[in-house]
Specification:
The complex is a heterodimer of chains A (304) and B (281).
Chain A: H1 2-25, H2 32-36, H3 43-52, H4 59-71, H5 85-120, H6 125-139, H7 142-156, H8 168-198, H9 201-208, H10 213-250, H11 256-265, H12 269-297, H13 299-303
Helix pairs in contact in A: 1-12, 5-6, 5-8, 5-10, 5-11, 5-12, 6-8, 7-8, 7-10, 8-10, 9-10, 10-11, 10-12, 11-12
Chain B: H1 2-9, H2 11-29, H3 31-34, H4 70-106, H5 108-123, H6 126-136, H7 141-168, H8 171-179, H9 183-219, H10 231-239, H11 247-274
Classes of the chains: A mainly alpha (304), B mainly alpha (281).
Chain lengths: 304, 281
């Protein structure tokens, strides 16, 4: 319990840091007024604009004000729709979570059998092929995989729709495109941590007392190899969200990544800021969840 | 017998990756000599298939929607990708290594502050932050490199810090200190050379990652001006024609994958050779 509280406090601290970076985004381009005000504005109009946006106050004051609003989830109005920016991002959040969850599922379904098979057939052809696949998966950009899938399953075979959302069929190709990188990373990690565990004394003991190979691998080795694996699943969430931004653009999938890309072309700073915050919150929550899972798998942490 | 064959065979992919990379670097350096006509538009020959796929006008990899030679544009595109990949790693590594050395060697509040910042940055997906910053900055290759350095430095910082924490306790560092060497001398003469192996390995793997990020950013239309030929942007431009002229999006995408694959092969090979403790069994 204390462990979880400690983690929670750490997460909040990180979130504060993220909010600071997001605040700083407004100033990245130098003077925010010149980026945001209309190009044809006169100096007086610029001054009025700066005053309306509160951009003429000292930066520390603006920062405190920004934080005070951020705590309430208020990041200002979208420049293009004039709706609350955070609300717009949150409207699109379920679609992105669905896509990311499907991608995690795909990564797990592929990586666990692949890692297991490779480790159990160390240095045999199964292992070599699994390693090659993992290597390819780590090198293939989301957009390339997405396009190959569209060409094969959308255009040629007509099995799956290449854009939109609404049915599970719309999720298949984006999830595969987003999840492949993680599937590869996870398979490599599972393989090498299994191989390491399989070299331990207690595994030899398990074999010596007459247990069959499969029982040893599943009950003894897999359980111990699960710790680094679970950590890595948590670390993948950030990559999956990055991938989702690209995949949502390719598959015209109405998630928050696509919203952000549109916002970027319009320099819609409040929407971009809300998007960065939401992405960071997902990563932080995912890592908290991993910490929780950790305490379930590893009794040493629970008892501390 | 089989094991020995495999361990010897393991160096082949590394050499293959190196060969591909050198070829790409040569293409990027000589792009203006090989592909001076990359921007020539022949609208009457637009969307022409590759010659080997029934194209009428003899384009090796087909032509795009404006009638430009796809292969020649890809050679020009190699320039941006490799520039961002290699120079980006130098800048990102420069920042990360310096901060990692400071955090690891000086420790204390230096360590705490630097590592907290790294924690915060790690919570924001790299592409998400890079897209946000790049969208606000004026598009240019230099800005793109700065953005990627700002969003990826912590990978280096973490690795270097971990290395330094181990090296700092070594007897030779202790001896240097006893002899009266100052912190700077110890870091430059003793710590850095001993951390070099893992730095080289991580740098190589990061080249591939940065190329992947650059391609994704160009694909999304942020980073470099959209008129600059980049592989990522070419894929995006081809997206509208994917059902009829699939080659426009496919081949630049394959170029990205090949480059990243080659870099990863070299990185893996260097890791096996330089840092055998990290070798995958």
């Amino acid at each position: 319990m204390r462990y979880i509280l400690q983690r929670l406090a750490q997460g909040l601290l990180v979130l504060l840091g993220v909010t600071t970076i997001v605040f700083a985004l407004t100033f990245v381009a130098g003077d925010p007024v010149s980026t945001l005000a209309p190009l044809e504005a006169t100096p007086e109009e610029r001054a009025a604009f700066a005053h309306n946006m509160g951009l003429d106050r000292p930066i520390p004051v603006q920062y405190v004000d920004f934080l005070a609003h951020a705590v309430r989830g208020d990041f200002g109005l979208s420049y293009s729709s004039h709706e609350p920016a955070m609300g717009e991002v949150l409207d699109r959040l379920p679609a992105t979570i669905l896509l990311t969850a499907a991608a995690v599922l795909f990564a797990l379904v592929v990586s666990v059998p692949l890692g297991l098979l490779a480790a159990m057939n160390h240095d045999r052809w199964v292992d070599v092929i699994a390693r090659l696949f993992a290597f390819l998966g780590q090198s293939i950009p989301v957009f390339l995989l997405g396009i190959v899938l569209i060409i094969v399953f959308g255009v040629d075979l007509h099995w799956l729709p290449s854009s939109g959302s609404g049915s599970w069929k719309n999720l298949v190709m984006p999830a595969v495109a987003v999840g492949s990188f993680s599937a590869a990373v996870l398979a490599r990690l599972l393989r090498s941590s299994l191989l390491e565990v399989l070299g331990q004394e207690y595994i030899r003991t398990a074999y010596a007392k007459g247990l069959r190979g499969r029982v040893v691998v599943v009950r003894h080795a897999l359980r111990n190899a699960a710790l680094p694996f679970v950590t890595m699943v948590g670390l993948q969430v950030g990559f999956l969200l990055s991938g989702a931004v690209v995949a949502e653009t390719i598959f015209a999938y109405p998630g928050m990544g696509r919203l952000a890309v549109t916002a970027i072309s319009r320099k819609d700073v409040p929407v971009i800021q809300s998007f960065v915050i939401v992405a960071a919150v997902i990563v932080i929550l995912a890592n908290l969840f991993v910490d929780l899972v950790y305490t379930r798998i590893d009794p040493r942490i629970r008892l501390r | 017998m089989r094991r020995r064959w495999i361990s010897r065979a393991r160096t082949i992919p590394g050499y293959a990756g190196l060969a591909v990379l050198l070829l790409l670097i040569a293409a990027a350096l000589l792009a203006d000599q090989i592909a001076p006509t990359a921007d020539t538009q022949l609208l009457l020959q637009r969307l022409d298939a590759p010659t080997w796929a029934g194209g009428a006008h003899g384009y090796l990899l087909g032509s795009d929607n404006l009638g430009r030679d796809l292969f020649l544009r890809m050679i020009q595109g190699a320039r941006v990708s490799l520039t961002v990949g290699f120079i980006g790693v130098v800048v990102s590594g420069g920042i990360g290594i310096t901060l990692g050395l400071i955090a690891g060697y000086l420790g204390g509040s230096w360590d705490r502050v630097i590592m907290r910042v790294a924690d915060v940055q790690q919570a924001i997906p790299v592409l998400v932050l890079a897209v946000a910053i790049a969208a606000i900055l004026r598009p240019s290759v230099a800005n793109l490199i700065a953005v990627l350095a700002l969003t990826t430095w912590f990978t280096f910082a973490r690795v270097v810090r971990a290395e330094v924490l181990g090296i700092r306790e070594m007897l030779y560092v202790e001896s240097a200190r006893v002899v009266g060497a100052n912190a700077r001398r110890i870091i430059v003469r003793h710590v850095l050379p001993n951390a070099a192996a893992s730095i080289i390995v991580i740098a190589t793997l990061q080249v591939g990652n940065l190329i992947l990020f650059e391609a994704s950013l160009s694909f999304l239309g942020v980073g470099v001006p959209v008129t600059t030929p980049t592989w990522g942007r070419m894929v995006f431009d081809g997206l509208d024609y994917v059902s009829t002229a699939w080659w426009i999006a496919l081949f630049p995408g394959i170029a990205v994958m090949t480059t990243v694959f080659a870099t990863n092969l070299v990185g893996d090979w260097l890791r096996d050779a330089l840092d055998p403790r990290q070798r995958e069994p």
